[in-house]
Amino acid sequence: MNVQTFTPQAFHRQAHDALGNPQIRSNFRRAMDGLMAKRRDAFGDWDIETLRDLGANIRLRALAKLPDLLEQLEANCQANGIRVHWAEDGEQACRIIRELCEARGARHVIKGKSMVSEEMHLNDHLEAAGIEALESDLGEYLVQLNEQTPSHIIMPAIHLNTEEISDVMHDRTGTERTIDVDYLTAAARAQLRERFMAADVGISGVNFAVAETGTLCLVENEGNGRMTTTVPPVHIAVTGIEKVVEHLRDVPPLYALLTRSATGQHVTTYFNMISGPRKPGERDGPEEVHLVLVDNGRSSIYQDNELLDTLRCIRCGACMNHCPVYTRVGGHTYGTTYPGPIGSILMPHLMGLEATKDLPSASSLCGACGEVCPVKIPIPDLLVRLRKEAVGEGRGNVEGAGVKRDRKEVLAWKGWQWLATHPGAWRAGAGVAGKFRFLSPSRLGPWTDYRTAPKPAATSLHAMVKQHRRKLEREDEK
After folding, report:
1. Taking Cα atoms as reference points, which of 82, 115, 112 lies closest to residue 232?
2. Taking Cα atoms as reference points, which of 374, 439, 304 lies closest to residue 57?
3. Most CB atoms closer than 10 Å: which of 58, 216, 227, 427?
4. Can you give the residue ranges of the 4Fe-4S ferredoxin-type domain (predicted)?
């Protein structure tokens, strides 16, 4: 199988390739239109702005108390019988999980959906140690069969249509080639059911970790999360440190925002609350439950009063669904674990700005991402800040910041800035540009590969308005 490798450094080439692939554009356009419509309908009878304010305040309050809440979470989890492990980075988190698996002699791991595990490349780490890690979320299962990475944080295989899914399953598992969705779903369920029963360890993500009660909340639709966390003898939950919330009462508003923003559902099929391993007398559940809390650059983000807002994210994917750039080029184009608008403000901190300097500019700054974010992350403002840091004009708090622009470009923008802040000079310049508009270049570098070069108007809008007003005044005098 010819597996394509995507990197953030090659964003422009990958975007060009995606724009030239009508199948990718069709798959994403159809999927995103449906998701936007479902979200709109799901919030139809709600005071959405009040709910968004509540969600934002809950997340801000949790982040303001983050160090204390993490200690409280650890204490209450341990009181419930959950063993807590701390990981400074992804490598340490992988090592902790591998050692837990090896301590049980595990050779087969079944995984629920977890973007943090994608972020730390956990599957590759386990397989290098001789431990098979199989994804149980249907979308994750399909991209794993296809030797790809997820293209969306909620719907990993959204880039594939039914025919492509059928081909993948036929080539890798021997199912019939068909567009019968029920058949394909049933075949995948049968394939995975055996693996649940044979797994030595189950690994899951966490949507909300409640400090007050030491409870781990998982949101899902397929039941694979419940199977992953209850059938194997050991359950390992892995999450970023920012997922903690203070009280159990904070969960319902965030859950309402998450489900409606992500898939347009009022509730998901399953909502799991895990508060410990199997107790004496109980008939099911794991013998051990472990929680791995992963930093991996989050503490650095936490120290910045503006970029701290990035940690509010509840991973709903709404910003991607409404982004005109993501919708047209797809998730793989970004070459990062988290694509789209949220990835463009998060990945520079996880990978360094030098490696991801094109991502903050992968936006039209239309503001749609900020308008639909359920916890009101000011994504457009953060994109602008990272753009400045990418060219050495920002605060420079992101690792790898300070990439220098061409001197001519710098002078050109400085000149533009001066003109735009001096009205008299602007009017005079506009008049001169209008008179000599025939000298305007027809090419402006790669920008005009897909656009017509702009030309100054012969008459400015202000001049046209003045002429129109004088004409009306003359007519009134007559």
Report:
1. 112
2. 374
3. 216
4. 304-333
- What is the DSSP secondary-structure string of 158-214? TT--HHHHHHHHHHHH-PPP---HHHHHHHHHHHHHHHHHH-SEEEE--SEEETTTT
CB atoms within 10 A of CB 63: 16
265 vs 285: CA distance, rounded Å: 28
Strands (E), 332-473: none
Instruction: Please identify which residue in the block is written with the tokens 């356009």.
Output: 29
What global pTM score does this model have? 0.85
Length of the chain: 478
Homologous superfamily of 43-296 in CATH? NagB/RpiA/CoA transferase-like (3.40.50.10420)
- Tokens 């050692």: give the residue: 99
Q: Please answer whether residues 16 and 446 qualify as being in contact, where contact means their C-beta atoms are separated by less than 8 angstroms.
A: no
Q: Where in the chain is the domain with CATH 3.40.50.10420?
A: 43-296
- Torsion, CA 110, CA 111, CA 117, CA 120, rounded to 10: 20
Span 43-92, pLDDT tens digits? 988 999 999 999 999 999 999 999 999 999 999 999 999 999 999 999 99
Do 32 and 321 touch, CB atoms closer than 8 A? yes
Backbone angles phi, psi at 339, to 5 degrees: -90, -175
Tokens of 276: 């410990």
Name every residue whose Cβ is closer than 8 Å to that of residue 134 and which is 6 or more positions away in sequence. Answer: 108, 109, 110, 111, 141, 144, 192, 195, 199
Q: Are the CB atoms for 168 and 81 separated by under 8 Å?
A: no
